[in-house]
Amino acid sequence: MENIPLHVGLIMDGNGRWAKKRLMPRSLGHNAGMNRVVSLAEHAQKRGIKYLTVYALSSENLARPKEELEGLFNLFRKYFSENVKKLYGQNAAVKIIGDMQGLPHDVAKLLAEGEANSPKEATFCMVFAINYGSRKEIVRAAKLAAESGEEITEKTLEKYLYTGGIPNPDLIIRTGGEIRLSNFLLYQAAYSELYFTDVLFPDFTEKEFDKALKEFSRRDRRFGRV
Ligand code: FPP
After folding, report:
1. Is 37 close to ligand 1, i.e. is its CB under 6 Å away?
2. What's the pTM?
3. Which of 110, 133, 201, 226 is the most exposed place for a label (fewest CB within 10 A)?
């Protein structure tokens, strides 16, 4: 495939509906979603993508019922104590973006370890947006830039975003049928190509991912030029 994006962002929507259709608790939808993340990380790497950012928990999601949140935290516990080793084995690094302070202490610790134990010469980076919200990220970056005393330019502000040092996403995919960005990488998405599909995230297979890549390869990216 030609013209592979360097960085893909993924809004993983539809786990709840997928579970409901099967008369299963929502937590099983999230579990199926996590299994998709494991496979898609490997697939993205195989396709030559260098960064895959998955929206695993928005700041707004923290208002969900306690029971659902606990289920998600358990998935993070499982992923970051077991599955993450598979990533390291693939020479992939882990990066977390979001506010770790709002998370249970043990989860925040596991996430920090996930980053710290990453291979040093990684050839792929898996970015997890957890307790992440773009507006909060931009406000935080503006404060840090102001405190630093540096002149505030795009370059300085970008340095203080959680994504500082990571290239902007070339392609953002949203599963689950909604046509919006829901506070995901709003600053970074200025020139991202957007791809929306009705497929619910647990059904978003490697084949569906390839359809998005194919569509991306046909887009004419002009970045405001002619
Ligand atoms: C939105 O679907 C999805 C989430 C709020 C959570 C996404 C999390 C995962 C896929 C698990 C990832 C885990 C790791 C460790 C990466 P929804 O519940 O809003 O679905 P609905 O719109 O059908 O209700």
Report:
1. yes
2. 0.97
3. 226
Among the listed residues 61, 83, 168, 183, the single catalytic one is: 61
Is 61 annotated in the active site? yes
Average pLDDT of the chain, as a whole number: 96
Question: pLDDT for 37-49, tens place per residue?
Answer: 999 999 999 999 9
User: Locate tokens 């406000």: which residue?
Assistant: 139
| DSSP track, 52-108 | EEEEEEETGGGGS-HHHHHHHHHHHHHIIIIIHHHHHHTTEEEEEES-GGGS-HHHH
119-157 tens-digit pLDDT: 999 999 999 999 999 999 999 999 999 999 999 999 999
Please enumerate in sequence order all residues whose Cβ is within 8 A of that of 70, keeping only pairs 6 or more positions apart, or say none: none
- When pLDDT is averaged across residues 65-79 and rounded to a whole number, the result is 96
Q: Whose CA is nearest to atom 12 of ligand 1?
A: 34
Using an 8 Å Cβ cutoff, are 162 and 149 in contact?
Answer: no
Q: Does residue 13 have an active-site annotation? A: yes
Q: How far is the CA of 30 from the centre of ligand 1 (A)?
A: 5
* Tokens, residue 152: 């505030």
Give the mean model confidence (pLDDT) for residues 99-113.
97
